[in-house]
Specification:
Blueprint: E1 3-6, H1 11-19, H2 35-44, E2 49-52, H3 59-64, H4 66-87, E3 92-99, H5 121-135, E4 140-147, H6 160-168, E5 174-178, E6 183-184, H7 189-201, E7 206-210, E8 216-217, H8 218-229, E9 232-236, E10 243-244, H9 249-252, H10 263-270
Parallel strand pairs: 1-2, 2-3, 3-4, 4-7, 5-9, 6-10
Antiparallel strand pairs: 6-8
Length: 271
């Protein structure tokens, strides 16, 4: 089976690339927003599967240049779908890495069929990609994974947990934290990779939440991380609490299981 991947230099892409032992020639190395680069890649390969991960992700980077984020996240996806529909001799199973940011904040668990209302411009660009995929299925079997929060040592300080760790590493004995009274759904990279692989093997079609179905307060994560640094923490919240966690029942029905690892233990070992 010939598997192509975009976004292989990212944290998740790097993990998947290694787990699936994807051939070098099947890794997209051009600019996803460039139609010629995308067409050339599709022409040169006879893919059975494409895993599309290429995107501008950190919220601060997205907000800094929204036009560029739109070109990469939406137009890049559009280029890929158009190229497959135009040039592929057969149907390709197409995995699109979307995000929990397409959902609104809510106090109850979020399911795939519930309404979307992006909480960020990043979420808006990914939702546009989802909609384009679902309207243009000529040569693809579309599978959309709405991935919830995860972290890694390789993530930049623009992501929440690396940002917390960066502050804890400072020379100050007392550190103030602002606006972290929020609940999110965190999942390990290993669990995400297993989800994608199971969906791929079963050629699953549709939208799937890839999440733990557990909400955890960012304060709890902060205090767990601080066991290593032992700083005096002062928390000053200046915004209302927000909650976002998803249902993974649809994914479980495909044979996927969440690992037994406690996420706080996972953080202490991997961050």
């Amino acid at each position: 089976m010939q598997i192509g991947i975009t976004g292989s230099i990212g944290v998740l892409g790097n993990h998947l690339k290694k787990k699936l032992k994807i051939k070098k020639k099947n890794i997209f190395r051009g600019k996803i927003e460039n139609k010629k680069d995308v067409d050339c890649w599709i022409k040169k390969n006879d893919f059975d599967v494409i895993i599309h991960l290429a995107a501008i992700v950190p919220i601060k980077i997205v907000n800094k240049d929204k036009n560029y984020a739109l070109r990469v996240n939406y137009n890049g996806c559009k280029n890929l779908i158009n190229s497959i529909n135009k040039l592929s001799p057969k149907k390709i199973w197409f995995f699109y890495a979307s995000t929990s940011h397409v959902y609104p904040f809510k106090k109850t668990i979020t399911k795939e069929y519930q309404r979307t209302s992006p909480i960020s411009y990043y979420g808006k660009t990914k939702l546009l990609g989802e909609k384009y995929i679902l309207k243009n299925q000529n040569k693809i079997i579309p599978c959309i994974g709405r991935i919830f929060s995860f972290t890694s040592k390789r993530q930049s300080k623009l992501f929440i947990i690396p940002a917390l760790i960066s502050k804890l590493k400072s020379n100050k004995k007392t550190i103030k934290f602002h606006n972290i009274n929020h609940f999110r759904d965190f999942i390990s990279i290993e669990d995400i990779c297993r989800a994608v692989i199971i969906l791929m093997k079963k050629k699953s079609k549709g939208i799937y939440n890839i999440c733990s179905s557990k909400k955890i307060n960012l304060k709890t994560i902060l205090f767990e991380l601080n066991k290593k640094y032992k700083k005096n923490i002062i928390i000053e919240d200046n915004l209302d609490q927000t909650i976002l966690f998803g249902s993974n029942k649809k994914l479980i029905l495909k044979g996927w299981k969440l690992s037994n690892t406690n996420y706080l233990d996972y953080l202490s070992k991997n961050c």
